[in-house]
Amino acid sequence: MREEGAAAAGGRNEVVELVDAIGRHAGTMPRPAAHDFPGHLHGAFSVFLFDEHGRMLVQRRSMAREHSRGVWSNSCHGHQRPGEPPVRGAQRRVTEELGVASHGLRKVGKAIYQFRDAVTGLAEYEYHHVCVGRVLEAPRPNPAEVVQIKFAGPAELRRMLAREEFSMWFPAVAEVALSRRAATIMRLEGWDPDHILGGMEIPT
């Protein structure tokens, strides 16, 4: 049985890996302390899963989450444990959040961003490993973390971005996940990041 709520992500006992500007290990810190404003740069990952039709799986985050509560975001988001390879951590969190396995998951790039959550005041200062892969079965989301999922094609995602609220990190990591390299690896068609993400502010 999956753990629920904050416990599934490690909760307040979770330890994250601090890194320098090029991703090298720089120590460890309890997750809550790493997110105290202005934040400490630490390793994280974002996962983008696509189904057999090339549609992206997006999730609406639970109101119990500490960051970007109740808004849409990419398929999965989390922190690798100290010493844990990012892709392995991403595979673990896909199962914890979505109740399925990821297939062919691989890293396609990175994104570094820093911003403050307008609701909680917590910081997101993360060195993100952006991963893409496939989902081949119906997700069974953990309701304590995910309240809604949707498979969206390029046109539908663009409409959602225009009318729905998304996590603050979404444009930064989606730009990497929809890069030409990622599209070639995943054999995606119609996913032009400039068209889909045009006009969205990308935190730096």
Q: How do the helices and strands line up, and which of them pair or pack?
A:
Elements: E1 15-19, E2 25-30, H1 31-34, E3 42-50, E4 56-61, E5 72-73, E6 76-78, H2 86-98, E7 103-116, E8 123-134, E9 146-152, H3 154-163, H4 170-177, H5 180-186, H6 193-197
Parallel strand pairs: 3-8
Antiparallel strand pairs: 1-2, 3-6, 4-5, 4-9, 7-8
Number of strands: 9
* Uncertain residue ranges: 1-10
What do we call the CATH topology? Answer: Nucleoside Triphosphate Pyrophosphohydrolase
- Count of individual domains: 1
Report how far apart the termini are.
Answer: 38 Å
Oligomer: single chain
Give, in spatial order, the strands making up the sheet with the most strands. 6-3-8-7
Order of helices and strands: EEHEEEEHEEEHHHH
- What integer value in Å does the Rg equal? 16 Å
Structure description:
The chain has helices at 31-34, 86-98, 154-163, 170-177, 180-186, 193-197, and strands at residues 15-19, 25-30, 42-50, 56-61, 72-73, 76-78, 103-116, 123-134, 146-152. The radius of gyration is 16 Å and the shape is globular. The protein has one domain: Alpha-Beta Complex (Nucleoside Triphosphate Pyrophosphohydrolase), CATH 3.90.79. The chain is α+β, with helices and mostly antiparallel strands and 204 residues long. The longest helix has 13 residues, at 86-98.
What distinguishing features does this structure have?
204 residues, alpha+beta, Nucleoside Triphosphate Pyrophosphohydrolase, four-stranded mixed sheet, 6 helices, globular
In short:
With 204 residues, the protein is an alpha+beta fold.
